[in-house]
Amino acid sequence: MKRILVTGGAGFIGSNFIQHCLTAHEDLEVINLDKLTYAGNLDNLKTVQSDPRYTFFHGDIGDRQLLMDLISRKPIDAIVNFAAETHVDRSISKPDDFLRTDVFGVFSLLEASRQFGVKKYVQISTDEVYGPALEGPMTETSPLNPSSPYSAGKGGGDLLCRAYYSTYKSPVVIVRMANNYGPYQHPEKLIPLCVTNALENEPLPIYGDGSQMREWLYVEDSCRAIDLVLSAGEPGEIYNIGGQGDMTNLMVVKKILECLKKPEDLIAFVDDRPGHDFRYALDDSKLRALGWKPEVDLDAGLVRTVNWYKKNKDWWKKLKEGDFQAYYKKQYGDRLAKAKKTA
Ligand code: NAD
Ligand code: DAU
Question: What's the pTM?
Answer without folding.
Answer: 0.98
